[in-house]
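thread: overnight batch results

M.L. [08:02]
morning all. the overnight job finished for the chain we discussed friday. pasting input first so we're all looking at the same thing
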Amino acid sequence: MATTINLACESDCKEIHQTFGNFSHLTQALATKSQIQRTQIREKYMEIYGEDLINCLRMRTTQLAKSEGNELGESSSAAAGSALALWMLDPVERDAVVAREALDQKSEITNFRALVEMFVGRKSSHVVLIKQVYQVRFGRILVALVASHKAHHADLSQHIAKCDARRLYQTGEGRSGAIDEAVVLELLSKRSIPQLNLTFSTYKHIYGHDYSKSLKNENYGEFEDALDVVVKCIYNPPKYYAQTLYGSIKGMTKDKGGLARVILSRAEVDMDEIQRVYRKKYGVGMIEAICESIPAGDYRDFLDKHIHFPSIAGTHRERPEHVRSH
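M.L. [08:03]
and the structure it wrote out:
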């Protein structure tokens, strides 16, 4: 069995090497591979050719972008190459790269959305590994979210959720002036992601609207904007990702890497549910929307394959089995 797998992997590597300039073929060869298969191919490629396949993909992508005289996002082949390079990374490496790009000082703004998705939608063990791979100075909310992964408990507490919801109200829309940031940061750092989800659900039950609605105030600033992203990503992930994809597909956002990032990170997790939410909310399937907005080519083919990539059972988020009332 092991010999068969090794031979298949070696065959894949030789085929990839022989047709390296053809991104259409690379998409066909790599887009449907599982994480384990991708790792095996990367290791075998290094063994055979002495080169890192990901570095080769990046170099070829840069060459294409220069030869075509376009920005990366304007070239289908270059965009496909960039996405393939991300896809070939293991999830921890990929998140580290995304974090680096999100915090790139050359950019006009920090891509906070990408960072929030990472810290809300990953397992605690995964987040710890990201931190080890890429030590970097995060903003206050992100520091709190990292700390929240130390707070995972077996049970959820309805009592704590009610108390926290009331605290959020009393230090937010229940008073005049700005939100008490210290209270928000305390809750984000001390509660697990599932417990925070229950708190936001309880808030809506008590006060009749989502907590994120209370953040829509013209006098609020960057902290509230960042908090709004956190709340939406925690409270209803499929809806959040559907909205993010819609904005990226329609070109309504500065988050230029959002489309590939979300599709790649959710392809093996909950893309089926995201697609259902997308169709229900916008009245069109995600594939149709992408075909209408993105020119035919390697990049569109690559995205199409990952939208149809089989999701694993469950999600990366840890879900407690019980909810305590006290």
